[in-house]
Amino acid sequence: MASNNSFIISFFLALFFSSMRLSLAARHLLQTTPKLPPDLPSLPPLPPKGNIPNLPTIPSFPKPNLPFLPPNIPKVPEVPIGTMPPLPAGPLPKIPTIPSIPFFAPPPTKP
Predict the structure, then answer these.
(1) pLDDT tens digits, residue range 92-110?
(2) Is residue 20 part of a domain?
(3) What is the C-alpha separation between 25 and 29, in angstroms, rounded?
């Protein structure tokens, strides 16, 4: 249900933003020249590069032990393959056809 509500809200938002006034306002904003920002203060210099501590090493974890497998694995029984029944010896039945719809010519147009 929440998905339906969000779909409806997004549909109305798209409908709202596709209005003519909003489209013209967006076009007007895109065609205006941007104003230059006032003089911004310069950024302070970066601190000198000092001794950076080394990253810690990745600890080694113990390797997992796999469970013991039995020496004799039982075999899966074979399933017999199914067969299709034989086709009838006589002629095959006829498949009914779909009747065609008659095509009527359109009425003549007046010159």
Answers:
(1) 778 888 888 777 777 787 7
(2) yes
(3) 6
CA distances from 50 to 43, 53, 81 (A): 20, 9, 76
Cα distances from 103 to residues 18, 96, 98, 99, 109, in angstroms, run 45, 21, 15, 12, 18
- Residue 100 structure tokens: 């065609």
Q: Is residue 45 part of a domain?
A: no
Q: Is residue 15 part of a domain?
A: yes
Q: How far apart are CA 2 and CA 8, in angstroms?
A: 10
Convert 55-72 to b/e letters by CB count within 10 Å (16 or more is b): eeeeeeeeeeeeeeeeee
Residues 42-99: tens digit of each pLDDT: 888 877 777 777 888 888 888 878 777 777 878 888 888 888 888 778 887 788 888 8
Residue 31 confidence (pLDDT): 83
User: Is 6 inside a domain boundary?
Assistant: yes
CA–CA separation, 30 vs 24, rounded Å? 10
Tokens of 105: 């010519």
